[in-house]
Design a protein that fits this description.
single chain; three-stranded antiparallel sheet; two-stranded antiparallel ribbon; 3 helices; 18% strand
Amino acid sequence: MALKTEKTDVSVETKPQPTAPPPATTVLELALYKIYTWGGVTYEGGKPYRFNNIDAMRLLAEQDMERPVWKIHQPAKPKQAPKNEIVDATRNRVTNPVDELVETIPATIPSPKRIDVGNDSEIADILAKTEDSGDVTV
């Protein structure tokens, strides 16, 4: 019994794609001034500028009163708006509003203590009046 060997087609081989070399430029923006002139060109603050890496290193080294004139540009991150998701509430049934006071009253209401109105002598006994003169007023 002989082993069969399969031939592969050499022309179909996949070759790895060459990766792009890192860019030889750097994006800078003014950090200190609103208008700055360098090399006969005027630059405005708040705008990004692309420089060769060698020039960018020289610009990043420039300082005025120990503060950097240039900084590396950081692009603003896009703001994500909150998504307005709609919640399906078609299964919920709306009822008429109920007075909140009714819901907060406990099921068993204790009977309030009651004092019957009597004459002055009965009221004086209840209040334990020590004076002998005058009417008792409640």
